[in-house]
Specification:
Rossmann fold; globular; 400 residues; six-stranded parallel β-sheet; alpha/beta
């Protein structure tokens, strides 16, 4: 294969904007789309409805097969970031393409060098089959590997890609206990386009915040172990607001969340739909925060997989310190300030106190951590280079 990373690749990005039209999820996808474009690649965004009701409409609080809200949302967002003519949506229910690329989408796919499937939440249709490099980005490690080990169709889906990457950055290390699905996974981390989130002035009387789902889906039992959600991680920290002068706020999703219990223990709650209405309300919420306090999914922490949230990376890029549950990321993220892992309530309290005592120092340190570890100009070229390396494209994953 004579493709090189520096040759200006034609890249198809499979992502999740139309079906999940909320600021945080959109921001995550834009980091790949804009990051690759700024490296000089010819990038296109494509999304697929799949065969089940998957289109969320926050104005109606419903999930069905109608993509109207998401299509309007995507058109506005992508136009605003300069990618308004580079997207298409396949509505499998109506057998119809939407978006400015609808007319020539097949030609784009036929001439593409690379496919990047973010999170594996889009089916691999026949028009993607001939793209020579097909990259899978595992955004939900541990759970992805369990699904692959227990569901042959999930594993086969992964095998249709030529290179597999995961946010479980400790995968393969002795201390990491990521379930083995028999596939060849390579570590990566989420990129941030740093000039989109310049640090702002320090907020006054602000809160430590986060945006979270109490339960994204059900916990999973595998080989005698339970791999849980943030709900399982959160309970040991329930009384934390009663032990600190810091104000702790959750923009909290999930209908199952025990909101009355949380407020009785001093947690402030926000409507996540207000906070994440679009990319700019989401970034404003982060910028107006004093920092982030967050737990991780219990499955991430339990396995010491090394996962680090793209949301937390955004707080850091905005110059906001992060106090977050240890998932093993301290194996690869070595910081003198700005980010603090914790494994119990005492460590969390000590971290909040330290941030409060030396706040300006930790704001500067937070930005420095983002520049060192999450710069899209470093992460994305490395991803492409590894994806095209013969050692990465394992024989069992190669197209015949």
């Amino acid at each position: 294969m004579d493709i090189t990373v520096t040759s200006g690749l034609r890249i198809v990005l499979l992502g999740y904007i139309i079906r999940g039209p909320l600021g945080g999820m959109t921001w995550s996808e834009l980091q790949y789309l804009l990051g690759l474009a700024r490296l000089g690649h010819d990038v296109y965004f494509i999304e697929d409805s799949d065969a089940y009701p998957s289109c969320y409409d926050p104005s109606r609080h419903t999930t069905d097969i109608d993509p109207s809200y998401g299509l309007r949302y995507a058109a506005e967002i992508l136009k605003r970031v300069g990618m308004g003519d580079r997207w298409a949506f396949h509505d499998a229910h109506a057998a119809r393409w939407h978006g400015p690329l609808a007319v020539n989408i097949m030609q784009v796919c036929k001439t593409a060098d690379v496919l990047i499937n973010l999170g594996g939440v889009n089916p691999l249709r026949s028009w993607f089959a001939e793209i020579p490099i097909r990259i899978f980005i595992d955004k939900d490690p541990v759970f992805t590997q369990i699904h692959n080990a227990t569901t042959p169709e999930k594993k086969q889906f992964c095998l249709h890609h030529t290179a597999l990457f995961t946010y479980a950055e400790n995968i393969g290390l002795p201390r990491a206990r990521v379930p083995d699905d028999g596939l060849q996974w390579h570590p990566t981390r989420h990129p941030i386009v740093l000039d989109m989130v310049e640090p702002g002035p320090s907020p006054t009387n602000a809160r430590f915040t986060t945006v979270m789902q109490w339960e994204s889906y059900r916990s999973v039992n595998y080989c005698g172990r339970c791999y849980g959600m943030k709900a399982e991680s959160f309970l040991p920290y329930l009384s934390l607001p009663q032990r600190t002068a810091c104000v702790l706020e959750l923009a909290l999703g999930s209908p199952s969340a025990p909101r009355d219990l949380l407020t009785r223990h001093g947690w402030r709650l926000r409507d996540p739909l207000t906070v994440t209405r679009d990319v700019w309300t989401y970034l404003r919420y982060i910028r107006d925060s004093r920092g982030e306090f967050s737990v991780a999914k219990q499955g991430y922490a339990e396995t010491y997989c090394g996962w680090f949230s793209e949301r937390s990376a955004t707080y850091l890029a905005t110059g906001r310190p992060v106090v977050t549950q240890e998932t093993g990321f301290s194996e690869w993220l070595d910081a003198a300030g700005g980010v603090f892992p914790f494994s119990n309530q005492e460590e969390a309290l000590a971290a909040l106190e330290e941030v409060t005592m030396r706040y300006e120092f930790h704001c500067c340190a937070a930005r420095a951590v983002a520049e060192k570890y999450f710069d899209s100009r470093k992460i994305l070229p490395l991803l492409l280079e590894r994806a095209m390396c013969p050692e990465t494209v394992a024989p069992r994953n190669r197209q015949a």
